[in-house]
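Thread amino acids onto this structure.
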């Protein structure tokens, strides 16, 4: 599935919820189902700055495609970071760089986050994009 197809499906799925609070509840429930990162990854090397909660994103590349895992001590942060990491995982660096995560505002997610959480979310995107850019240079 391409990133454009994934984006369309995600927008359709999240649009089924009549308001942003129900969407956030759905994201929180998804976060509770996500496995935690191994404690060995919860280091400053993987920590996302600018978020009021602790948030870690672990990137890796396999067979030319990027994969990402995320964890946080706040479920809403873990859920939103999880959406982004799942969304971009399994795609080439070039595809990742060419696809901004605008769909989160399209479905009313970013508008209902605190400024600190929005900042953390943009830093997750910056980490994902930065990792993809490094892979392109290799």
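Threaded sequence (138 positions):
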């Amino acid at each position: 599935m391409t990133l454009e197809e994934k984006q369309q499906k995600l927008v359709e799925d999240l649009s089924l919820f009549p308001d942003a609070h129900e969407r956030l509840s759905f994201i929180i429930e998804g976060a509770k189902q996500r496995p935690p990162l191994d404690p060995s990854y919860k280091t400053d090397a993987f920590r996302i700055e600018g978020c009021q909660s602790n948030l870690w994103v672990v990137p890796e590349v396999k067979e030319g495609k990027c994969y990402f895992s995320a964890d946080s001590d706040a479920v809403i942060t873990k859920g939103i970071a999880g959406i982004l990491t799942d969304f971009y995982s399994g795609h080439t660096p070039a595809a990742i760089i060419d696809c901004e995560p605008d769909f989160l505002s399209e479905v009313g997610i970013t508008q209902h986050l605190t400024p600190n959480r929005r900042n953390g979310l943009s830093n997750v995107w910056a980490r994902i994009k930065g990792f993809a850019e490094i892979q392109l240079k290799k």
